[in-house]
Design a protein that fits this description.
Elements lengths: L1 H6 L14 H11 L4 E5 L3 E3 L3 H11 L3 E9 L9 E2 L4 H9 L1 H4 L20 E2 L2 E2 L3 E5 H7 L11 H11 L3 E12 L9 H19 L2 H27 L7 H16 L2
Parallel strand pairs: 3-8
Antiparallel strand pairs: 1-7, 2-8, 3-7, 4-6, 5-8
Helix pairs in contact: 4-9, 6-7, 8-10, 9-10
C-alpha cells in the first residue's frame, strides 16, 4: 500500500481490513469513481499499453454498449475463454450428457462456456468474465452495481444478464488483448474456492428460476461433478501421469458441497 501511495500519489487508495469479496470491493470503488466509464481489473491481469484507450474509444463509438471486454490470454498467451452464456437447464443438460463435447462447434449444444466461439470477432454475449471489463456509468446507473450477495464468482454473469435485460449490450472486443494469469487467490485454497464456485453457480441460477427448475439444475450439476470426480479417481488408481491431485481435491470438495446443498 505504501508503495502505491509513493509511486502513484494521484491514485485514490481504498483499504479494507477484511476481504469484502469481489462484488462489494468493486462496488466501493465504483461508488467513488467520477469518470464516465468504470474499469474492473483483477490484480493478476496484465493490461497492455493502449488497451484501456481502445476500450474507451469502442464505448464512445458504440453508445448502446453497457459492458465491453477484451480478448483474454493465459500466461502462455493461449486463449482464455471469457465469454459466457447464462446458465440454463438446456446448456447444463448439454454439458452433462456430453453433447457439448460431441458437437464442440455447435452453439445449439454448447455449455455455458461457449467453447464453440473462437473469440476471434466482435460478438454480443450474455456475459463476460469480469477479470477485466469496462462498463458505462450511465448503463450501470440503470441496471445497478454488482450484486453483493455474491462473495466470489458469478456476480459478473448476473451483471451481464441485468445489463442485457435493461436494453444494453455486453460486447466482446478482440482487437485488444490482456493477460490473465489466474489462480492468484484460488491457488492458495483450491478446495475452498471450488466450493465458492459451486455455491455461486447455484445462487445465480436460483435468482432467476423456479424452485422446481433449481432442483433439476442441482441434480444435473451433481451428476456432472460426480462423473468428473470418478474420471479423475480412475486416473489416480490406474497410476496415469495425467492425474491431477489438486483437481481431484477440488472435485471432491465440490461434490461434498453439492450433496449437502440438496
Amino acid at each position: 500500500m505504501a508503495l502505491v501511495r509513493e509511486k502513484y500519489p494521484l491514485v485514490q487508495l481504498i483499504e479494507s481490513p477484511t476481504n469484502l469479496g469481489f462484488a462489494k470491493a468493486n462496488n466501493l470503488a465504483m461508488k467513488k469513481a467520477r469518470g464516465r466509464y468504470f474499469c474492473l481489473v483483477n490484480s493478476d491481469v496484465i493490461v497492455f499499453p493502449g488497451c484501456l484507450d481502445a476500450l474507451a474509444d469502442y464505448m464512445d463509438r458504440n453508445p448502446k454498449t453497457g459492458i465491453v471486454g477484451p480478448r483474454i490470454l493465459n500466461a502462455n498467451e493461449s486463449l482464455q475463454l471469457s465469454c459466457r452464456e447464462f446458465p440454463t437447464l438446456w446448456n447444463k443438460l448439454c454439458a452433462v450428457m456430453g453433447a457439448a463435447r460431441v458437437f464442440p462447434r455447435s452453439p445449439r449444444f454448447s455449455s455455458e462456456l461457449m467453447k464453440w466461439f473462437a473469440h476471434d470477432r466482435e460478438l454480443a454475449v450474455d456475459a463476460l468474465v469480469a477479470c477485466f471489463v469496462m462498463a458505462r456509468r450511465a448503463a450501470v446507473d440503470e441496471f445497478g452495481l454488482l450484486d453483493e450477495t455474491f462473495f466470489m464468482y458469478y456476480e459478473d454473469i448476473d451483471w451481464g444478464r441485468r445489463c442485457n435485460e435493461a436494453g444494453w449490450k455486453v460486447m466482446f472486443y478482440p482487437k485488444v488483448s490482456s493477460v490473465h494469469r489466474g489462480g492468484a487467490s484460488s491457488g492458495h485454497a483450491p478446495e475452498r474456492f471450488a466450493v465458492e464456485l459451486q455455491r455461486a453457480l447455484l445462487q445465480v441460477f436460483a435468482k432467476y428460476n423456479s424452485p422446481f427448475a433449481c432442483r433439476l439444475f442441482w441434480m444435473m450439476q451433481v451428476a456432472r461433478c460426480s462423473a468428473f470426480t470418478a474420471e479423475e479417481y480412475a486416473r489416480k488408481i490406474s497410476g496415469r501421469k495425467s492425474f491431477d491431485p489438486i483437481k481431484h481435491k477440488r472435485l471432491k470438495a465440490s461434490l461434498r458441497f453439492l450433496v449437502s446443498a440438496r
